Amino acid sequence: MGAKLRVYKRRIRSVTATKKITKAMEMIAASRIVKAQRQVAASTPYASELTRAVTAVATGSNTQHALTTEVPSPTRAAVLLITSDRGLAGGYSANAIKAAEQLTERLKAEGKEVDTYIVGRKGVSYYGFRERKVVDSWTGFTDSPTYADAKAVAGPLIEAVQKDTAEGGVDELHIVFTEFVSMMTQTPVEDRLLPLSLDKAAEAAEESSKGEILPLFDFEPSAEDVLDALLPRYVESRIYNALLQAAASKHAATRRAMKSATDNAEELIKSLSRLANAARQAEITQEISEIVGGASALADATAGSD
Q1: In angstroms, how far is CA 138 from the centroid of its own chain?
Q2: How many CB atoms lie within 10 A of CB 30?
Q3: What are the tens digits of pLDDT across the range 190-245?
Q4: Residue 239: which of 145, 121, 144 has the closest Cα?
Q5: Cut 0.90: pTM above it
Q6: What is the DSSP annotation of 213-258?
Q7: 124-135 residue pLDDT tens
Q8: Are 262 and 22 in contact (CB under 8 A)?
């Protein structure tokens, strides 16, 4: 019985050590969420105003540009998938990958070839294990992305949009990331960055400007030159905002997963403690029974000798 008690105590020590680790990770993730939320809030106005400016240029001119012009029969699309570099975040990366898979299947059903770009080691590992082609990938910054990281990601995508499809270019650019809704809710979403949907952009711009009418602009030197200048800024800002949304979502998912792990560890410790107490009680009972039995046998032996 003593061996069983030692096993329970050893397991309790092990689970207690694990609980300390998960609790620390929960607290770290909670502290990072606040910073990520502030970055999201700071980047959103810039992205909204930039979209508003692009909308104004597009609606105020008849310029045909890759940023705003729909291709009559698109044949190739690029999909940027944003996942995490690390695990221990529940189904965060798996849900984003699932959304990207559904988008890819839909694009292929429309007769389009799909070029996949990935941010995060989880996505890279998923596609690498299945031996699926990835045009380009980036890792190492998903927990705390910077604007420089967004520019590095946006560069190859902008080049692909500006190329002809015969030279490896794409007609459309889509992005899949996890939107931070609240501490408890993070939703995988997919959005088409290029060509820009002017109807949706106008609605977003009107909402960001609180119902103000978009002003009329004069373009110098030309609307096309303005759009050429805005194209990289627009893609970079949208990708940066998506990276920040994904980082906040990942930290929230990690916090929730680690809290669940901590709670489970506490329940397991309670269960093991009850088993250890029962084993200890059984051991004490057995010892008492052996003492009483020995005393009784000794008394009987003494009475027989008398």
Answers
A1: 15
A2: 16
A3: 998 888 765 555 555 455 455 554 455 666 777 777 777 888 888 898 999 999 99
A4: 145
A5: no
A6: PPPP---SS-HHHHHHHHHHHHHHHHHHHHHHHHHHHHHHHHHHHH
A7: 999 999 999 999
A8: yes
